[in-house]
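Hi P.,

Sorry for the delay on this. The queue was packed all week, but I finally got your sequence through. Input first:
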Amino acid sequence: MNHIAALQAVVTADLSDREPTAAELDAIELEMPIITAEVELLDAQIMTLDRPVSELDERRIRRARRRVLAARRELSNRAVSVSVPGVGA
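Then the structure:
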């Protein structure tokens, strides 16, 4: 009796087993400022979960939100300038 499972593993390889492509790594690198800003915002919010929010905490969260918005704006502006070369130059 032949075992089919060993043959199917080659045919139906799991996508999670492969390494990221260069394009995927470039996309992650491009979005890294947003990822970092969102992590900082999450850290600021987590610090306030088990205690009353102080004035310093409010400022920390407000600054972190501004960093997230600035990073998103920067990425959006960069994407527009890349997708429409020569316009507005």
